[in-house]
Amino acid sequence: MPQAGTASTTSGRRAIIAGGATFAGTFGALAALPDDRDDRLLGLLAEYDRLEAELLALGRSFATIADEEAHQDVCDALEARQIALAPLIVAAPTHTLAGLRARARNLAGWAPDLLVPDADKGWDQRFVAATLRDLARHTG
User: Fold this and answer.
1) Cβ proximity of 33 and 95 under 8 Å
2) Is residue 48 packed enough to be buried (19+ CB in 10 Å), middle (13-18) or exposed (0-12)?
3) Which of 138, 43, 42, 26 is nearest to 99 (CA)?
4) The pLDDT value given to residue 42
5) Cβ pair 139, 102 in contact under 8 A
6) Predicted model pTM
7) Does some domain include residue 83?
8) Does residue 55 sit within a domain?
9) DSSP-derived 3-state class of residue 81
10) Domain annotation covers residue 70
11) Which residue segment(s) compose the domain that 69 sits in?
């Protein structure tokens, strides 16, 4: 027997379906937007990733730099440029699914533990972690 307040009626089910279709349409519209709306953010993230690649390359080739202090100065300068990009990356809004995915991948590099929905986290943190993890994983 139907309970009060549930969508057991035909009109109630249709309202739920219509709401889901509206959400799906909105999400689909977000995914279909031209990527050029996120050019600023994507450029900032690309520069951040380029600096990160330089840092990783320096770490692997430490033996090629004779002066350890000079090596550390180079690493510090690259990290300072990354840190300077951080507030710009945070301030740049996303407009497309590509921008959201790029932001999630950047977050995965900054704080990978945020993308793990561990059992010791509350359900709200698990939902956020799962969403970020899935956004970061998808590239297309």
Assistant:
1) yes
2) buried
3) 42
4) 93
5) no
6) 0.62
7) yes
8) yes
9) helix
10) yes
11) 36-92
Compute the distance between CA of residue 105 and CA of residue 90 in angstroms, rounded to an integer.
13
What's the CA gap between 41 and 106, in Å, rounded?
11
DSSP state of 43: H
The domain total for the chain is: 1
DSSP symbol at 1: -
Residue 4, domain member (yes or no):
no
HSE value, Cβ hemisphere, 13 Å, CA-based, for 42: 13
| Nearest of 26, 42, 29 to residue 89 by alpha carbon | 42
pLDDT means per 10 residues, the chain with 140 residues, are 50 56 56 74 94 85 68 90 94 89 86 80 84 74
Amino acid at 73: D
Contacts of 58 (CB under 8 A, 6+ apart): 65, 71, 74, 75, 78
Give ∠ CA 17-24-104 in degrees, rounded to 5: 140
Single out the residue of 82, 78, 75 nearest to residue 45, CA to CA.
Answer: 82
